[in-house]
UniProtKB/TrEMBL annotation:
The keyword Hydrolase applies. GO terms for molecular function: hydrolase activity. Signal peptide: none annotated. One of its GO terms (cellular component) is cytosol. One of its GO terms (biological process) is cytokinin biosynthetic process. Belongs to the LOG family. InterPro entries: LOG, LOG_fam, LOG_family_nucleotidases. It comes from Metallococcus carri. Pfam families: Lysine_decarbox. This is Cytokinin riboside 5'-monophosphate phosphoribohydrolase. It catalyses: N(6)-(dimethylallyl)adenosine 5'-phosphate + H2O = N(6)-dimethylallyladenine + D-ribose 5-phosphate; 9-ribosyl-trans-zeatin 5'-phosphate + H2O = trans-zeatin + D-ribose 5-phosphate. The keyword Zinc does not apply. Its EC number is 3.2.2.n1.
Length: 242
């Protein structure tokens, strides 16, 4: 066994991990089964294809804002009504509206955008149970991988408006706030819509996360909470002004 580095693309291998054959050998040698097709490195091509599809579909979208929130909101809830209004007002302010393309809050924002005559985008995700794109999506892209889809939300929107939601919504919100904190995105408004719902979480953020020194005052300020869809859109618009 040798301690010398064995370079396989970006990967360095040493000791017992140094392979006995090279990539070229394995490529050119005869294969008697198709197992290699199902390995992770092969999957990278699919992942790459999803990025290409997404970038291609959204390249000419123009200014857009993503709206997130629970997939389980029903159309009779006040949050759903706010979702419709925020979708409409975003279009009136000159934005396309991007959602996860599913039911609940996503459907509400797409509905508002469509009814206002704007561009209504749904970035769907393959799930073990079929939900499909909601009927108010005019430009839809379906993804296999959550992380590819999440890149599209951040890359093609100028900010997020976040309605009440569960784990999926919190995941999208906290990814964005981390990207803002680490300056991977700059000038990225994050507006939480629904004071009663979000206040206990903001109390935790301020009381515990800030209180224990895990985040800074500036980080707390990254999350703005409002009750009124009009105010939510105003905050998004103002963040864009020079
Ligand atoms: C669970 C139900 C439908 C699932 N369908 C979804 N379609 C598209 N996107 C979804 C779906 N579920 C979650 N998401 C993503 O997460 C966010 C909402 O998650 P939450 O846990 O409900 O807050 C949402 O913004 C999507 O991006 C019901 O039939």
């Amino acid at each position: 066994m040798t301690d010398e580095d064995y370079q396989r693309g970006a990967t360095t291998l040493r000791g017992k991990l140094v392979p006995r054959t090279t990539t070229d050998q394995r490529l050119l040698d005869e294969h008697t089964d198709a197992d290699w097709l199902h390995t992770d490195p092969w999957r990278v091509l699919r992942i790459q294809a999803e990025f290409v599809e997404g970038f291609g579909a959204l390249a000419e979208l123009g200014p857009a804002v993503a709206v997130f929130g629970s997939a389980r909101l029903t159309s009779d809830s006040e949050h759903y009504a706010r979702g419709v209004e925020v979708g409409r007002r975003l279009v009136e302010a000159g934005y396309a509206v991007i959602t996860g393309g599913g039911p609940g809050a996503m459907e509400a924002a797409n509905k508002g955008a469509r009814e206002a005559g704007g561009t209504s985008v749904g970035l769907g995700i393959e799930l073990p149970f079929e939900t499909g794109l909601n009927r108010y999506v005019d430009l839809g892209v379906n993804f296999r991988y959550f992380f590819v889809r999440k890149t599209m939300f951040v890359k093609y929107s100028q900010g997020y408006v976040v309605l009440p939601g569960g784990f999926g919504t919190l995941d999208e919100l906290f990814e964005a706030v981390t990207l803002a904190q680490t300056q991977k995105v700059t000038s990225f408004p994050l507006v939480l819509l629904g004071r009663d719902f979000w206040t206990p979480m903001l109390d935790f953020v301020r009381g515990t996360l800030l209180g224990e020194g895990m985040i800074s005052e500036r980080d707390v300020e990254r999350l703005q909470v409002v009750d009124d869809p009009e105010e939510a859109v105003r905050l998004v618009v103002e963040a864009r002004l020079p």
